[in-house]
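Morning!

As promised:
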Amino acid sequence: MNSCVAIEIEHPQNPDGAGRTDELSSAKRLMTHMSDATVMLAAIEAGDPKAAEQLLVLVYDELRRLAASKLAQEAPGQTLQPTALVHEAWLRLVGDQNPSFKDRAHFFRASAEAMRHLLIDRARRKQTQRHGGNYRRVDFEEVDLAAPSADDHLLAVNEALDKLSVEHPVQAELVKLRYFGGLTNEEVSQVLGISVSTAKNYWTFSRAWLLNEIDG
Amino acid sequence: MNGDSDREIAIFTQALKISSQKREAFLERSCAGDEELRRKVEALLKAHGRLGTFMEEPPSGEAAD
């Protein structure tokens, strides 16, 4: 995990209080968060190191909320689609405020990192449950119990990714954006400021590197 | 460090475009006696050969089909 990131994963703070679904308060919350996100993006651009962390927490919270409602609506076995979640979070938190190109980049970096946390946390919880934990279905983490191998695979990729980031930081960032953030090659190339063909080459390289690390 | 990373990626990327018969000579030439680099690139090429759909599905896409 990125050392500059500290998210309360086990007991996420819910400022609205548990179970409150009042529409008015939900709309109010969203408006507050929208302006929060915009302020944070501006602060990141101005070089405030704390703002990046704050944005990450905000995005994590929103993604988690979206994921929970998605999984509650749909059939068992439904999985989380990073692309859809990240783009929905973007619309909800930043919307059509015509953000700058740099704001988009900051947002997608934060959302890829948040999505990574969310998916890894979920995979770890499911793994813990399988190893003798309880099966009480109280949260979205428990709703969809996928094949054990899928979670093990995800955790192995994540661990290898930490190693990749030591030797090849830019390529590891690309993997986060593409794999965990669900961004396209075009979006990734914009965020990282590289050409689309370079992004494709880095992706191929990173996949080979990670596979070799996992079972080389 | 960054230079090493770039070089490794560049050689790997280029090697993929070269037929397997000519690859040996290409690696010999471009790694120029750097055994560590050559070992890394060769391991990557081997891994590339068995990539299949590794990581092409979204991380939670196991139940998609």
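Residues 2-16 of chain B form the longest helix (15 residues).

Hope this helps with the figure draft.
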